[in-house]
Structures are given as C-alpha cells and as structure tokens.
C-alpha cells in the first residue's frame, strides 16, 4: 500500500475496490463448486410418485395368488422398478415395493421377445408370468419365496 505524501489528494477507496482480487477469487470458487453440486442435484431428481402405497392386506391378497400376479398390478403401486435392456430391448423388469414399515415385495419379470423381429415396442414383448416373487420381513429378516410350492403365507404373516 502506498504511503500518503503531503500535498497529494487522497483517493477514496471502498471495501470493494480494495479487495477486487479476493472477491473475484471467491466468486470463481463458488461458481466452480456450484456447477458439480447443481449437476448432481438435477441428475438425482425424481418426480414425486403419486401412486398409492401397497397395504398389508393388498400384499396378503397378492401373496395368496402368486402365479396370477401381473406386471400391470405391480405398476399400480408406489415403489421402485428398473428395466434391464439389451440392444435397446427391455428383457427384465425389477420391482421393489415397500409395504408399511416392516415388509417389502421383490419381483422380477423376464420379458421374452415374440417370434419374428425384435423391436423396441412393448407390444412386441411378452412374458407369461413373474419369474421371481418374494416378500422380505425387515424385522425378522426372513424371506418368503411366493412362487415356491411350499410357501406358507399364513405362517409368514402370522395369521
């Protein structure tokens, strides 16, 4: 900083003019750190799921008829589902549906392309039934495979 010499007029400085380099540095840091944070916040954004939560009674009803549960029924309930694609064609759909605070339902449906040309059109894809359907109890850490012939649904739910 320059010393004041008698006879010279002093210049008026403010905080902003004295610290221009510091302010520019801090703004650069904020921008450079803000871009990745904004990117990850936008990338992870999921719209709110407005489908109804599956109730325990609905879970018991589905568990009572495991061979007849369809993909459309599972799509009606709030939960997560992922699709595995090969060459742009969906070949498997995974479902994870939380039921209350205690249970969750896991399901996998394998989709088989119809004979002929394979296209990325869901009307061209068929699947007879679910290939995996199970209920997991988070309290007792037990899993019941509903597609098993000896699955005792009443004993699992404590009825």
Notes on the protein architecture:
It is a single chain. The chain is α+β, with helices and mostly antiparallel strands and 159 residues long. The strands form two sheets. The chain has a five-stranded antiparallel sheet with strand order 1-2-3-6-7. Strands 4-5 form a two-stranded antiparallel ribbon. The radius of gyration is 30 Å and the shape is elongated. The model has no long low-confidence stretch (mean pLDDT 80).
Structural class: alpha+beta
Q: What is the helix tally?
A: 5
> Order of helices and strands, N to C?
HHHHEEEEEEEH
Q: In what order do the strands lie side by side in the largest sheet?
A: 1-2-3-6-7
Number of strands: 7
Q: Helix coverage percent of residues? A: 25-40%
Largest sheet, described in full?
A: 5 strands, antiparallel
**Segments where pLDDT lies below 50 for 5+ residues?**
none
The global form is elongated
- The whole-number mean of residue pLDDT values reads 80
Question: N- to C-terminal separation?
Answer: 84 Å
The rounded Rg comes to: 30 Å
Strand content: 25-35%
State the main characteristics.
alpha+beta; single chain; 5 helices; 159 residues; two-stranded antiparallel ribbon
Could you provide a short overview of the structure?
The chain has helices at 15-18, 20-43, 56-63, 71-75, 153-157, and strands spanning 80-86, 89-99, 103-110, 112-113, 125-126, 132-137, 142-145.
């Amino acid at each position: 900083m320059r010393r004041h010499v008698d006879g010279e007029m002093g210049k008026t400085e403010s905080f902003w003019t004295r610290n221009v380099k510091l302010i520019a540095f801090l703004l650069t840091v904020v921008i450079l750190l803000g871009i990745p944070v904004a990117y990850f916040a936008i990338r992870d954004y999921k719209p709110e799921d407005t489908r109804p939560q599956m109730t325990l009674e609905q879970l018991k009803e589905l568990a009572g008829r495991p061979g007849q549960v369809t993909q459309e029924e599972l799509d009606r309930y709030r939960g997560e589902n992922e699709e595995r694609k090969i060459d742009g064609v969906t070949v498997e759909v995974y479902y994870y549906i939380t039921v209350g605070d205690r249970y969750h339902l896991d399901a996998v449906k394998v989709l088989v392309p119809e004979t002929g040309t394979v296209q990325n059109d869901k009307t061209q894809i068929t699947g007879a039934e679910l290939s995996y359907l199970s209920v997991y109890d988070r309290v007792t850490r037990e899993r019941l495979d509903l597609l098993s012939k000896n699955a005792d649904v009443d004993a699992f739910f404590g009825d």
